[in-house]
Amino acid sequence: MTINVDSDTCTRCGICSEVCPLSVIGPVDEETLPRVAEGRSGMCISCGHCEAFCPTGALTQSFADESQTGSQRETCGEISPDNLGIYLKSRRSIRKYRPEPVGKETIEALLDVARYAASGGNGQPVEWLVIRDPKEVQKVAGLTIEWMRELANSNHPMSGYVPHLIAAWERGSDIICRGAPHLLIPNIPEESPIAPTDAIIALTTVDIAAPAFGLGTCWAGFVAMASRSYRPLQDYYALPKGRIPAYAMMFGYPRHTPHLIPRRNPLKVTWR
Ligand SMILES: Cc1cc2nc3c(=O)[nH]c(=O)nc-3n(C[C@H](O)[C@H](O)[C@H](O)COP(=O)(O)O)c2cc1C
User: Looking at ligand 1, which atom is closest to the CA of residue 222?
Assistant: First the structure.
């Protein structure tokens, strides 16, 4: 990693050095421009904080991986805690969808937001499988039911519960994917200990951003459980070698709109 600093616009404020999580940028003073500290270039995790926090735009970073895209200077202006709180509290799981498909551009724009989600060591390990064809979503639901049939006579903690779900499916009720037109499968490298958390953070970001795109989502817990262990479902996904499904989320245009924020348990906090 290298940095370029415009000596005319750099105010020597040292913020780039202060915010660098791995002290890659050495201390800055009146005489010293920001520079990569001796022997630390290889420690850079390409988080871009040195560029992002520079108040004058004097610093640009050359990443080892120049394929990274999407830096921008726009800000969205003030979001008041009240407005943000109401937006976040208004998110609901959507289990009834309109049939019209979500356009690829909209899906890409939604997923693009999740590119900026936090990831351990800025590893950005999450990739997406978008199952956009509703018939294929039904295939996943069907395979999840097949997985449940295998559990029914086992000592799996779900074994007592699955007969009801199977019976509902057989009555023609899609209790697995709720008739959602689309399904999202974040996938991650098999061996990484941090990537499962990164995937949940990325998927939560999608969940939160979706209503701003007019979309509804619902975490697909049954599909996720089946995806973890059921080989036919994993084979169906046909993810690249070494990558595994991390969770699943249904999405589409919601059929109904909530008109109030429902009640929840009181906040429980322990203070030390
Ligand atoms: C990890 C997780 C798995 C879930 N799995 C399912 C599911 O398989 N099917 C479903 O209908 N809802 C599922 N949900 C949605 C929850 O039921 C829902 O979040 C909860 O009832 C609260 O409602 P709200 O999301 O509208 O606030 C899941 C939610 C989470 C967080």
Answer: 8
Helix (H) or strand (E) holding 92: none
Q: CB neighbours of 72 closer than 8 A, spacing ≥ 6?
A: none
CA of 133 to the centre of ligand 1 (A): 22
Q: Which residue has the higher pLDDT, 63 or 98?
A: 98
pLDDT of residue 72: 85
CA 219 to CA 232: how far, in whole Å? 21
Closest residue by Cα to atom 29, ligand 1, is 219
CA of 123 to the centre of ligand 1 (A): 28
Q: Considering just the CA atoms, what is the radius of gyration of the chain in Å?
A: 23
- Answer whether 95 contacts ligand 1 (Cβ < 6 A): yes
CA of 262 to the centre of ligand 1 (A): 14
- Residues with Cβ < 8 Å from 174, sequence gap 6 or more? 138, 141
pLDDT of residue 54: 95
Is the separation of the CB atoms in 146 and 230 below 8 Å?
A: yes
The pTM of the whole model exceeds 0.70 = yes
Average pLDDT over residues 32-56: 93
Mean pLDDT computed over every residue of the chain: 95
CA dihedral for 63, 69, 73, 75, sign (positive or negative): negative
**Beta-strand runs (E) in 53-194:** 59-62, 127-131, 182-189
Burial class of residue 14 (count of CB atoms within 10 Å of its CB; 0-12, 13-18, 19+): middle
Ordered domains of the chain (ranges, CATH): 1-68 (3.30.70.20), 91-252 (3.40.109.10)
SS3 169: helix
